[in-house]
Amino acid sequence: MFFRRKKKKVPPPKKKSRISIPDDFWVKCPSCGSILPNPDLTANAKVCPKCGYHFRIGAYEYANLLFDEGIEKEIGANLVSADPLNFPGYKDKMRKYERLYGLKDSSVAGIGHIFGRKVVGFFTDFAFLGGSMGSVFGEKFYRAARESRRKRVPLIAVLFSGGGARMHEGIFSLMQMVKTTVGVIQLEERGVPYITVLGDPTMGGVMASFAALGDVIIAEPNALIGFAGPRVIKQTIGQDLPPGFQRSEFQLEHGQVDLVVDRREMKRTIARLLDMMTAGIR
Ligand SMILES: [Zn+2]
Questions:
Q1: Distance 134 CA to ligand 1 centre (A)
Q2: 57-278 belongs to which CATH class?
Q3: For the segment 167-177, what is each residue's pLDDT rounded down to a tens digit?
Q4: Start-end ranges of CATH 3.90.226.10 in the chain?
Q5: Which residues contact 270 (CB under 8 A, 6 or more apart)?
Q6: pTM strictly above 0.70
Q7: How many A from CA of 201 to the centre of ligand 1?
Q8: C-alpha of residue 168 to centroid of ligand 1, in Å
Q9: Of the candidates 189, 228, 193, which has an alpha carbon nearest to the alpha carbon of residue 214?
């Protein structure tokens, strides 16, 4: 006697999907929870169309939003940190970020046009070590300010810098607070307009130097702006902090920033400001 073997069920061959959707196609808004298609979000200046949440944005991306033709001539494009302290793992980290984001450091500087008005731009990128300020950052900002002074064209600095001074370069990073400030003072002496745009976040040594020195200081909505962060302050003073502490709207109310402007209106706003600031000197 024998039993007939049960036929093994073979699963039907998987149909190959003709449409392949990339992993980063859908993005969830951390503020309202809406699921948004990435291309739509990019077309909307990376601002959630449902609730107005401003997603963080890269240095080149911001330059493309603000400038008619993006950055036309880059300043200090090949500067790379010399790792003066031989900080463990620092060089590897820089190489990794260069590979991932195509950035040699946390900032990009260059010449561009805003509705036909020639300007010098300085943009920081949070993706590269938190947009922190090291010696290359300081040097690029100084060269941008120098170019702006020599050509007598306004300087616009757009910042997404969480860490402030970069710990991997120790005192060399802290020295950049002075260097960038000197760049701004020299601009001021020649009466060249300087506008800062503070993104989320703008903190530490960046905020405690050139970021806070703009003739006009603009903030993006709901950006964290300050020196020490709210957690550190809360721990130090042992008190609860008011709602919205250190956010753009709070800083506007307390006189730390001049305007809070939606990113989608940033280019038009800066153009209007430049017209007002340069009236009579053209
Ligand atoms: Zn949203």
A1: 34
A2: alpha beta
A3: 999 999 999 99
A4: 57-278
A5: 66, 114, 156, 195, 197, 218
A6: yes
A7: 18
A8: 35
A9: 193
